[in-house]
C-alpha cells in the first residue's frame, strides 16, 4: 500500500509538470485506474496539489514541504552519521527521544521530527520549533573522557556553519553555541551527555535550524533576533538535501575531532566565530563580566580581557555584545 | 502490622540480652500473647535469633546484619544528603536505579541496596557486591557547568577516606577513584553524570564499600587486592551508623565543594593520596606512561613526570604502581 503511494509520488515528480495518465501509472504498479484515483485523492488530503484532466492525466503542481527519510537515506554519503534515521511527524523534543533510545541505538543514529511540541534550548530555555525548520538530534558514542564533550560541541558548531556557508549563507558562530547570520540567530545547538568521568556513554547533539521558517511565524520577542535560510536566500530549500549535506559535514568534523590536534579545531572555530574580537557582556550565575573576547580554551570556555586587562575564562553564561 | 514488628525488635534490643515477657510486649502493643508469639516466629525466619523460655520471656541473642533505613533516618545529622533514603533488599545496581529516578527525585536522595546483582565498576567493569558491604548511590544536582564533575568525584574520595579514618582505618586514595588500606582496595567510587555542557542535570555518586565483607567470599583474583572494614578492625561494624557518618561527611565536603577554593580541595586530596609520589605505570587506550606521579589538575587528571622528565597529564587510565 505504502509503496504504491510512494511510487505514484515518484512518477509524478519525475515527469516534472508533464501529465502522467492514470492508465500508465496503473500499469506500472499493477493496479486499476480506479485504485490510482483513490491514491490521488488521499495524496491531495496530505497536501499534494495534483491536477487531473480526463484526457491527459495527472499533474503534480506542488507538494508539501516535508522531509523525506527514504530520499535522505538514498542520497546520504556518510558511513557512520545517519546509519539509522528515525523520522517522526511530531515529537515532544528530538533530544528527549534520542536520550530515550540512546543506550540501545547504534552510534550515528539521527532522530528527526517535522515539528516539536516542546523544543528545548540551552539551560532549560524554550526553543520555538516552527514548521519548516530542521529539528534533529544525533547520537554519538565516542570513547573519550568526559572533558572532551565541549570539544564535540565546538566541532558541531563548525559543521553547521560550514554547511550553511556551502549553501551561500554568511553564517558565523556566536559563543557558546548559536549560529548567526547578519547578527540574527539561524541555528542553536544543545549538547547533552551521559557519562562516567573517564568515559562518555553517549552524547546527544541537538541541532535546530530555522530552514524554511517564515519570520512572521516567530513570536514577536524572538522574531527580531532571528532569521531563516529561506529568508536569507529568498527561496524555500530542499530540507532533505540540506540534512544530507549537514550529516556529511558532521561526519567529516567528527572524524577530524578524533584525529586532529585540538589547537587546529580551535583555530577553525575562531575563524568562523562572530564573537572573538568583539566587546562582550557575559552574565553568569555569580557575576557579570565585561570586556573583549579574545579566544577560547580547550574546554570551550571563552577568554575575555576585562577592564583591568585581566584574563577571565568563562565556561558558561549568557553572552551579549556591547554596542 | 509492620509497626508491631519494628516495636518488638526495638523492645528486645533495648533490653540488651535480658528477657522480656510476652505479656509485657503484648500489653505495650495492645495485642495478645499469641500474636506476639506469631511475630517472634516470623522474626526467627528473617534471621533474628530469639530465645524463648516460658518462665522469663524472650531474649534476642543475635540479629541479622542488615541496614536499617528507619534507624538511619533517625540518626542522620544532615540537612541535604539523605533527605530521601530508598532502601532495597536487592537491586541490579544502585547506580542504575538512581539514574532511573534521578530526574523526579530531590537532590540528596540516596539509594541503598543490601545486595547488587550487577554492581558496576569504572568503565564498564564488574564490581563484586558481596553481602555485608555498603552499596549506595547518591543523587546530586549542583547547578554548575559540566567541567566541575571531576571535582565532585575528588571530593567524594575525600569524604569516604575521612569517614574510614574516623573509624580508625588508615585509608588512602588511589588515583583516580579507589580507596585503599595497606595497598588493598576497600572502596570504589563510580561517578556518572547527565548534563548539558553548561549545566549539570544530575550527578550519581556510586559508592561501594567492603564493610562487613568476608575476604573468603571474594573471587580469588579479587581477594588478594581487597580488604574490608571488618577485616581491618577485627569486628563487624554497624553499617547503619557508618552510612550515617559517611553521608554526614559527604554533606560537609559537598558544601565545601561549592564554597571552597579548588586548590584547597586538591591539597586535601593530595594529602590523603596513596598515589602521589609513587612510581606509576598508567595504561590509556592510546599509550602507556611510566614515571612519577607528582600531582593532579583541576580536571582530576594525574600529573606524571615521565622518563624524559616531561610533564604528562592523564585524565583517564588504568594505574598500577611500579615496584
TrEMBL record, chains A, B:
GO molecular function: ATP binding; biotin--[biotin carboxyl-carrier protein] ligase activity
Alphabetic keyword roster: ATP-binding, Ligase, Nucleotide-binding
Entry-linked PROSITE patterns: BPL_LPL_CATALYTIC
Record has Ubl conjugation as a keyword: no
Domain BPL/LPL catalytic span(s) in chain numbering: 70-258
Enzyme's top EC category: ligase
Domain of life: Archaea
Listed Pfam families: BPL_C, BPL_LplA_LipB, HTH_11
Gene Ontology BP terms: regulation of DNA-templated transcription
EC number: 6.3.4.15
Segment forming the signal sequence: none
GO cellular component entries: cytoplasm
HAMAP family membership: Bifunct_BirA
Protein name: Biotin--[acetyl-CoA-carboxylase] ligase
Species of the source: Methanolobus mangrovi
Amino acid at each position: 500500500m505504502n509503496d504504491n503511494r510512494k511510487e505514484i509520488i515518484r512518477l509524478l515528480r519525475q515527469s516534472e509538470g508533464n501529465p502522467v495518465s492514470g492508465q500508465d501509472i496503473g500499469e506500472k504498479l499493477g493496479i486499476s485506474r480506479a485504485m490510482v484515483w483513490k491514491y490521488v485523492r488521499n495524496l491531495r488530503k496530505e497536501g499534494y496539489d495534483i491536477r487531473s484532466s480526463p484526457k491527459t492525466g495527472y499533474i503534480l503542481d506542488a507538494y508539501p514541504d516535508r522531509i523525506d527519510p527514504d530520499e535522505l537515506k538514498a542520497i546520504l554519503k556518510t558511513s557512520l552519521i545517519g546509519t539509522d534515521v528515525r523520522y517522526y511527524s511530531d515529537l515532544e523534543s528530538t533530544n528527549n527521544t534520542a536520550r530515550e533510545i540512546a543506550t540501545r541505538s547504534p552510534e550515528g543514529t539521527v532522530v528527526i521530527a517535522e515539528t516539536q511540541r516542546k523544543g528545548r534550548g540551552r539551560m532549560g530555555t524554550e526553543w520555538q520549533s516552527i514548521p519548516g525548520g530542521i529539528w534533529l538530534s544525533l547520537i554519538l558514542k565516542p570513547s573519550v573522557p568526559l572533558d572532551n564533550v565541549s570539544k564535540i560541541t565546538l566541532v558541531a558548531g563548525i559543521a553547521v556553519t560550514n554547511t550553511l556557508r556551502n549553501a551561500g549563507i554568511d553564517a558565523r558562530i556566536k559563543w557558546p553555541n548559536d549560529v548567526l547570520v547578519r547578527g540574527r540567530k539561524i541555528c542553536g545547538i544543545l549538547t547533552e551527555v551521559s557519562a562516567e568521568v573517564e568515559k562518555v556513554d553517549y552524547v546527544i547533539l541537538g541541532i535546530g535550524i530555522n530552514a524554511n521558517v517564515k519570520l512572521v511565524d516567530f513570536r514577536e520577542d524572538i522574531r527580531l533576533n532571528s532569521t531563516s535560510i529561506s529568508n536569507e536566500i529568498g527561496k524555500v530549500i530542499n530540507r532533505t538535501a540540506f540534512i544530507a549535506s549537514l550529516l556529511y559535514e558532521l561526519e567529516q568534523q567528527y572524524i577530524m575531532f578524533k584525529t586532529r590536534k585540538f589547537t587546529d579545531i580551535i583555530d577553525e572555530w575562531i575563524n568562523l566565530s562572530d564573537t572573538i574580537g568583539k566587546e562582550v557582556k557575559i552574565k553568569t550565575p555569580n557575576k557579570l563580566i565585561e570586556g573583549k573576547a579574545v579566544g577560547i580554551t580547550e574546554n570551550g570556555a571563552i577568554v575575555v580581557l576585562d577592564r583591568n586587562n585581566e584574563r577571565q575564562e568563562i565556561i558558561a553564561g549568557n553572552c551579549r555584545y556591547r554596542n
